[in-house]
Amino acid sequence: MFYCHLCKKHMWDANSFENHIKGRTHLMMREGIEESYRLKANMIRQEAKIAEQLKSIELDRLKRMGKTKQRQLEYCTMCDLNFHGHISAHRKSEGHLSLKKFLHPKCIECNKEFATRIDYDTHLLSADHLQKAAEKNTKVGERKRNTLTIHTEEEESKDLRPPQKKRKKPAAKKAEGETTEVKKEGEEGA
């Protein structure tokens, strides 16, 4: 249970774990991870902006053709995005929901939501969370990792086509002047 998922280090007892959490190397690692979270959030925002720009181009094209009228722009502070449409529809969009899930994670064991991802990481290393995780027999940070589902051979192969027998190629028609010797040499080389 004494595992720091940020530094990927195992500790042998509570004192060593606490000393690690207060230590300089852990704090430096935390700052680096916090910066990577900022970059990831900005990347998600940029993807949403690109998608919205594509939608805006399509709406402009339809407007020029007279098939639609101009819609008012709305703004989402979390996504830092001006968008066409209603705010309630935007909040249900895949881009907004993925950004919200990334920025404001939830601890399943403790049933708590967090304002920032780094607060969530700090919570995962807290004594309260470690006790609840131990009671529920879950590993620290298990919810953060995407788990790879390993299937049996039968499950993996159920969607595959059965192997097909190799077909023989039809013999090529003999051209005028072609001898049978040349034909045999060509077959042996193939």
UniProtKB/TrEMBL annotation:
Record bears the keyword Zinc-finger: yes
Gene Ontology cellular-component terms listed: nucleus
Keywords: Metal-binding, Zinc, Zinc-finger
Region annotation (Disordered) ranges: 133-190
Signal peptide extent: none
Residue ranges occupied by any C2H2-type domain in the UniProt entry: 4-26, 107-129
Biased composition (Basic residues): 163-172
GO MF annotations, alphabetized: zinc ion binding
Pfam name, any one: zf-C2H2_jaz
SMART domains reported for this sequence: ZnF_C2H2
Biased composition annotated in UniProt, kind: Basic and acidic residues: 133-145, 173-190
Protein name as catalogued: Zinc finger protein on ecdysone puffs
